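Field log, afternoon session.

UNIT: design team B
ACTIVITY: writing a sequence onto a fixed backbone
BACKBONE:
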């Protein structure tokens, strides 16, 4: 098998993403690149290039468009991606101009597209000559037009900040198992291991690392003292407020970040963890094995409880429903390319179906925590507003004040980047007690 270098691998990854609509993580998880010798620093560079081009894709294209006399044909998408990789290296990675230009030209030739070598050379040199630099990139425009329009319509004067924050790199945030170790103690342990970290300003269980590290370098990770989880996601378990012995359902559980937190936070609950995807449910099992706690794992469709639910209704339900993931684009920059505007309404309808079905499984007097990692009102505030109109026996519990979220009517919204957090929405719903 022909070995592959990091730039060619990044080109192949991006082509596959754009042409086949597959996610970056999914493409890189296949062994085809490692089988061709991509490892260590080269693998890291391939990741940096492909993740980085996705992060800036729409803005880099905007910069390129006036510099191409006519748009490239679909069959020359590889040439366009070579140009995007070149511009990204020049502007964001600060690669020396002659090196970035030379590599891009050689890469074009190696694809058998010598006719485009002059074009690549001229466009990249032109950018260098014009003094275009990182400051020329507008982070708030690094999205498809429909996304920019939706965020503006939803968030008005806050929109530019939300969009700019969404182009940043997300910090690596850890959750401490506070039942077993204090956060200060964990910070000392990390410092001794040479890992720079600080306490999160608003979430008690969260620690932010100055730089990302491999989980195998984290002291206490294998024992479950530390887990990787964004600080906004760490609010779910405490918000659900479960009592000892409660019967609880984590309805969309995989990969199990919140399942694990629920069990660590409330060791005495009886937890069912449900997911529709059996392979993703295996990741929940792995996560629980690591932290040494257990739940009943169920493969099933939360919208069809009759197919999997037997026995008692639940005291509490966590509904972390599938969503646009528009709040986690810092971690998954490919969402900007993969998500279509036409995906949103079907998602909203699916969420409504899920939460309606789950409501039937809740005991009178029970609580359901609805959450998404979305910043779109349609999936959040508007979704819950409509739910309340459909269900006379539902009322929303006031989420209270926090400096890191915006109270909504109903629920609360964390906007991307607020206190370094992902974009998240929470609404806690209570079912009327039985008569
Ligand atoms: C946002 S993710 C959940 C993340 C998870 N709660 C965590 O904290 O790690 C949504 C999950 O819902 C699952 N899902 C989608 N449709 C479902 C359905 N109809 N019933 C149950 N699970 C579903 C997906 O497979 C996915 O794992």
């Amino acid at each position: 098998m022909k070995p592959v270098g990091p730039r060619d691998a990044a080109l192949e990854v991006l082509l596959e993403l754009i042409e086949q609509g597959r996610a970056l993580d999914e493409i890189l998880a296949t062994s085809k690149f490692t089988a061709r010798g991509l490892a260590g620093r080269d693998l890291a560079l391939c990741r940096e290039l492909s993740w980085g081009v996705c992060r800036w894709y729409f803005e880099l294209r905007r910069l390129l468009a006036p510099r191409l006399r006519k748009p490239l044909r679909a069959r020359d998408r590889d040439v366009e991606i070579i140009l995007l990789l070149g511009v990204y290296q020049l502007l964001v990675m600060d690669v020396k101009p002659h090196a970035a230009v030379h590599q891009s030209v050689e890469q074009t030739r190696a694809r058998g597209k010598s006719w485009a070598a002059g074009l690549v050379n001229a466009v990249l040199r032109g950018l260098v000559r014009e003094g275009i630099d990182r400051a020329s990139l507008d982070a708030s425009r690094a999205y498809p037009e429909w996304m920019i329009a939706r965020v503006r319509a939803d968030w008005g004067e806050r929109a530019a900040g939300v969009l700019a924050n969404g182009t940043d790199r997300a910090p690596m945030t850890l959750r401490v198992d506070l039942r077993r170790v204090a956060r200060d103690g964990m910070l000392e342990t990390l410092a001794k291991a040479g890992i720079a970290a600080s306490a999160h300003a608003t979430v008690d269980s969260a620690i932010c690392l100055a730089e990302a590290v491999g989980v195998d370098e984290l002291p206490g990770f294998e024992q479950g003292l530390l887990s990787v989880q964004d600080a906004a996601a760490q609010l779910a378990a405490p918000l659900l407020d479960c009592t000892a012995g409660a019967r609880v359902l984590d309805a969309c559980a995989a990969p199990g970040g919140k399942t694990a937190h629920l069990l660590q936070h409330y060791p005495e609950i009886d937890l069912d963890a449900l997911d529709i995807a059996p392979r993703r449910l295996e990741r929940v099992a792995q996560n629980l094995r690591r932290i040494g706690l257990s739940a009943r794992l169920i493969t099933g469709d939360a919208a069809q409880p009759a197919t999997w639910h037997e026995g008692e209704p639940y005291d509490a339900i966590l509904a972390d429903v599938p969503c646009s993931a528009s709040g986690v684009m810092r971690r998954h920059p490919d969402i900007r390319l993969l998500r279509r505007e036409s995906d949103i309404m079907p998602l909203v309808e699916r969420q409504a179906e899920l939460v309606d079905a789950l409501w039937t499984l809740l005991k009178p007097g029970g609580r359901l925590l609805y959450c998404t990692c979305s910043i779109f009102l349609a999936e959040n505030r508007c979704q819950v507003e409509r739910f309340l109109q459909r269900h006379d026996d539902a009322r929303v519990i006031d989420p209270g004040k926090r400096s890191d979220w915006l109270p909504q009517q109903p629920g609360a919204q964390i906007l991307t980047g607020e206190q370094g957090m992902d974009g998240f929405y929470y609404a806690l719903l209570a079912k009327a007690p039985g008569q």
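LOG NOTE: The longest helix spans residues 40-64.
NEXT ACTIVITY: expression trials, pending approval
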